[in-house]
Design goal:
By secondary structure, the chain is mostly beta strands. It has no helices and 14 strands. Strand 9 and strand 10 form a beta hairpin.
Length: 235
């Protein structure tokens, strides 16, 4: 039996973009699938975009979420057989995804959380976008006899023409950590020139996949404990 769900009423096609490392464990029983563009196929209705009416003054910071919660929250999950998948994304900036193939079968789950800004001004604005992300990841039973296990967490900035301006890998499956649980706190920054009448997606995305034909199978989990995003004038 196959179960597939999504929490987003609107999705768009995946778009091509610059390469980043594939997120997968280099174990004999594990195989790679998907690509660097995971989590980049969401779209937020224009009515939910937050307008920025002009360049920020020197020394000022737009912190998200502010008076309004994050306007981009999406979660997907899919499972087959006895496997289980769960995912969630909250406007306050927490999110999680779990792919559990402990009892066999296959599962995948993903989330995207962040904000879409509409730069509604007449002149470009050189900005710096900084993500502050605290997260926890775990991998169990990664040495099963057969199957696959993947985990990835990233931050990216994308414009309304589906161009990925920047992306960075925050966490991935690591042979030296397997099996293990680890936490991290990252603050990656991107210098972005905001163009007039253009929307910008500021997003943290994760995906996990687990599959096996034998028990006990692997499980992968990503949990974002907190997320804030600062937009400032570029120095």
């Amino acid at each position: 039996m196959r179960h597939k769900t999504t929490d987003s009423p609107t999705t768009a096609r995946p778009f091509a973009s610059t390469c980043v490392a594939i997120l997968t464990i280099a174990l004999p029983f594990l195989s790679a699938c998907g690509g660097d563009d995971f989590g980049e196929n969401v779209r937020v209705p224009q009515s939910k975009h937050q307008n920025v009416v002009g360049p920020l003054e020197t020394g000022t910071t737009l912190t998200l979420p502010g008076d309004k919660p994050f306007n981009l929250t999406d979660a997907q999950r899919n499972s087959r057989g006895a496997a289980a998948a769960s995912s969630s994304a909250d406007p306050a900036g927490t999110a999680s995804c779990v792919a559990d193939a402990f009892r066999g079968g296959s599962a995948d789950a993903a989330f995207q959380v962040g904000h879409v800004l509409n730069y509604d001004a007449s002149s470009p604005f050189a900005a710096r976008v900084t993500f502050h992300v605290t997260y926890e990841c775990s991998l169990t039973n990664a040495y099963a006899d057969s199957g696959k296990l993947e985990l990835g967490l990233k931050a990216y900035v994308m414009d309304s023409d589906h161009r990925v301006i920047g992306r960075v890998l925050l966490a991935s499956a690591d042979l030296d950590r397997t099996p293990s649980r680890w936490t991290g706190s990252e603050s990656p920054s991107f210098d972005v020139t905001l163009q007039p009448k253009t929307a910008y997606h500021l997003v943290v995305a994760a995906q996990v996949k687990a599959e096996t034909k034998e028990e006990p199978g692997p499980t992968a989990t990503v949990y974002v404990k907190s997320l804030t995003i600062d937009v400032t004038p570029a120095s």
